[in-house]
Every structure is written in C-alpha cells, then in structure tokens.
Amino acid sequence: TLGTQTDYRDGEAQTDPYSPEYIVRSGSVPELLTLATLTWGRGLPAGLEELAMIDRAREKRAWEASLPPMDSPSNTAKRLKMMEEMERKEWAFREQEIEKLQKARLEVLKKMLRRREENQDKVDAKRLCDHWQNRQRAREEKIKKIQHDCALMLRKLIANRKNMMEKLDRRDIIKEYTDFSSQTYAPLSRIGFFPDNNSDCYVVKNFYLNTFAGLCELEASLPDSVIQLKIKAPKPKCIITKTGFIKRSARLEADLAQVHQ
C-alpha cells in the first residue's frame, strides 16, 4: 500500500542488463558461452533468427561429435565426405541468407523508388497547376484587351455612322447651350482647353480679409452688438423649484398637454 518516488526519471536510471564475470573450469565447455557474442540490443532479447542460429550451432556441435576419428583410411575418407556434405549445406544456407538480404534490399529500393515517383508526381502536378494558372491569367488579360478593343472599335463605328453621308453639320449654338455636357460648359483638354491655367481668376482677393490692417479696420467698423454677444437663457415651459428641478405635477401636466396635442 506504500509507494516511493525518486529524484530521477526512469530513462536516466535505466541501464543495460548486468553481465557478471565468470570462470570456466578446465575441461568443460558450457553451451551458454556460445551466446557470449550476443549483447543487449544486438541479439538480446533473442528473436526467431537468434533461436535458429542457436539450433544450427547445436546441430553443428552434434555433427562434430559424430565425425569418425582419423585412425584409418576408410574413416578418413568417410570424414572427408561428411565434411564436404556439411560444407555444401553451409554454402546453401549462406546462399539463402544472401537471397533473403537481397530481397530485403530490393524491397527497400522499391519503396524508395515509389516514394521518389510520388514526390516527382507531386512536383509535376504543382508545375502543371502553376502553368495552367499562368495560362488562365494570360487568357483573361487577352480577353479583357479584346473587349476593350471591341468597345473602342464600336465607338468609332458609331461615330462614323453618324456622318455616313459625309455631310457638313452646322454648329447649333442653341443645342450646345441647352446641353450642359457640351463643349461650351465642359470643354475637353485634347482640343486645347486647360481649365487649371486660369484657376486664379476665381480666387477672391479682398483687402479686408487678406491683410491684418484690413481686418483691424473691419473689426473697428462693426458695432458692439456684433462683437459682444448677449445670450438670454430661455424661460422654462414648466414650473420649477428654486433649486432648478421640475415638479412632478408640472411634468405630468406637460405630458398630458403633449398627448392631447
């Protein structure tokens, strides 16, 4: 029912499994020493491949124990034959391991090629999308230019149609002065009229407004009633008290009068 809490995280306190020192007796070969090459993270904890390696090592030790001694020519020939068979098995097993490794590398290569093709497809799709957008933008600009040119040509055709017979139209002064959008009231700059050139003619220039002496003279000529104003407070419409508040009865009478009106 009790718990403890340390000052360190599990990741900081976690270490590799402890491997104690050992001493081998003379004349004995423990089977456990065959796994001395396996360490934590490199073969441990043991998986299917490690178990298969342990089984092959056991089979090889059993095969070495079953080899006949080299005390006669027949045993020597038999021993060589068994060793050749074992060598062929070892080469066959090695070829299987190489094929398995090649298949794994081939799968990794296929995944890399597939990923590269997908990335290339994405790049191509983005490039096509950008190209399509640029072409659409150019198409819209071209359509706008065609519409602008069309409107311009239509105005030219309408203007030419008015004078189709090439008759000389006399100036109608009455029509020009009745039409406030004509050249009389609103002349165009392209025919040589620039309204900003004579803009100073409309500026009001007065001695009494533009100079200090004129302002003083204008102020002296004004009567006192204009300079010194007297404001009279309006009389209240309702009855008020001395403190300036309206009585409730007066407010009620004013509301009734407004409603009656």
UniProtKB/TrEMBL annotation:
Q: Which GO terms describe its cellular component?
A: axoneme
Q: Which InterPro entries match?
A: CFAP91 (IPR026720), CFAP91_dom (IPR032840)
Say if the entry is tagged with keyword Cytoplasm.
yes
Locate the coiled-coil region(s) and give their ranges: none
The family annotation for this protein states: Belongs to the CFAP91 family.
Instruction: Please give the PANTHER family that the UniProt record associates with this protein.
Output: CILIA- AND FLAGELLA-ASSOCIATED PROTEIN 91 (PTHR22455:SF10)
Q: What is this protein called?
A: Cilia- and flagella-associated protein 91
Species, as recorded: Piprites chloris (Wing-barred manakin)
As recorded in Swiss-Prot or TrEMBL, the protein's gene is named Maats1_0
